[in-house]
Amino acid sequence: MKGLDASLTQKGSEEDFGVELMYDTHMGWYASRRLMTCRVPYNLVCFGGKGMIQEVADLYQLFVSVHATVDKMLEGLSDDDWVKKPQPNFNNIASIVEHVALVERRFFAQVKGELSQLDAGEPFRAESWDVAKIKELWVSNLEFAKSALEPLSESDLAEFGAKLGVGEVNKRQLIAYAIAHTAHHRGQIPLVKKLLGL
Predict the structure, then answer these.
(1) Is the dihedral of CA 29, 4, 55, 26 positive or negative?
(2) Regarding predicted confidence, which is higher, 99 or 37?
(3) What are the DinB-like domain coordinates in residue numbering (predicted)?
């Protein structure tokens, strides 16, 4: 079953209940045979025994879903396909995915209140790309984002998040901006594939 198990999204009393689930880093939550027990307050959604407030859980599920659509686009591509450029002045798939992954890592670090010096523009200036390293960063961002989002309360979301090109944003807006940024660059991948004949 794609997405959150329906039993996890309901608001209710703080009662212990068994939930059959597993976490897949590419596609999100699915039913499985492994039984876990968690305690869910009225406004939390269970994630691996911990909780996210509903708004944050909804945003995280959207983030996971956007990642899954990118993963689908990348299926079957070789490392050579990742680094080919349709034209000398075009970006390749490797630079697009690495740029997006670095921006995600920087934004979710800022959600945690950490400073990040990552240069997200470097992949577009590079002349070579470590595809295996890019893939590892891309996949690991799902868990990194989850670790940034799980502790957040309603009041945390209104706190200062970052100063961006659009101005100062709070943590709620920063999370939304991170997802929107990934979705924006997601749309470039089919164009590169089409121009390469992939």
Answers:
(1) positive
(2) 99
(3) 66-189
CATH number at residue 98: 1.20.120.450
Beta bridge partners of 163: 168
Give whole-number Cα distances, 151 to 53, 66, 72, 111, in Å.
9, 22, 30, 10
Q: What angle do CA 162, 166, 169 make, to 5 degrees?
A: 35
Q: Provide the token pair at 137.
A: 């960063």
| Closest among 40, 34, 35, 55 to 157, alpha carbons compared | 55
User: If pLDDT is split at 50, 70 and 90, which confidence band does 50 have?
Assistant: low
Amino acid, res. 164: L
Assess if residue 48 is contained within a domain.
Answer: no
Q: Please tell me the pTM assigned to this model.
A: 0.74
Residue 29 domain-assigned (yes or no): no
The span from the first CA to the last CA of the chain, in angstroms, equals 30
